[in-house]
Amino acid sequence: MLRIEDLHKRLGGRTVVDGIDLACEPGTICVITGDNGTGKSTLLRMIAGVLEPDRGLIEIMGASLARASLAARQRLGYVPEAANPPGHMTGEELFALVQALKQAPPLGPERRTALGLDDIAAERIARLSLGQRRRVCLGAALIGDPAVLVLDEPTNGLDRAGVTTLTALLEEQRDAGAIIIVATHDRDFAAALAGQHFHMQAGRLAHGADVPQRTS
Fold it and tell me: Are the C-beta atoms of 31 and 184 separated by less than 8 Å?
């Protein structure tokens, strides 16, 4: 499971994350909404290991992000809001780098096709649109079949078909046992995701109404 206890972070002289506790079981989507500046991206960056908390615990499948960093990070996939990997790289080069770091097999052909990567992965990332960069970043995040997938504003730059593909992909990952953490301003997208819903305000999380898992 993903376990977060008493997480704190100050940035620019103010408290951005203020004592957050969160527990997510495998096979769960946790959706976090909230206004700009409430701490959503900071929280996700700490869960992804990009930013170190001032205080608190983050464990991924029993591995501490602070004490067992490599083991924890190998089980993570992360797409930041900016979706801005080095522009001089191609998508294929980014995938190869992530594979090497995670010691993982390549992304499967079905997943590449579903994400629309076949026609863009050979291009320099700097030449891609925001939506295309986000697809490349999603592909990189899914390498190694991560136990925890962290997505910050994942619908930014995606057209309607892309959002539909993303929603189906997240449901597939959830059904396979992954924990998915999503921060979003997109109300329609948030409403389409069945799982635990939270609202973030002034660095703290409040429970929203849990959305029942959909049945096919």
Answer: yes
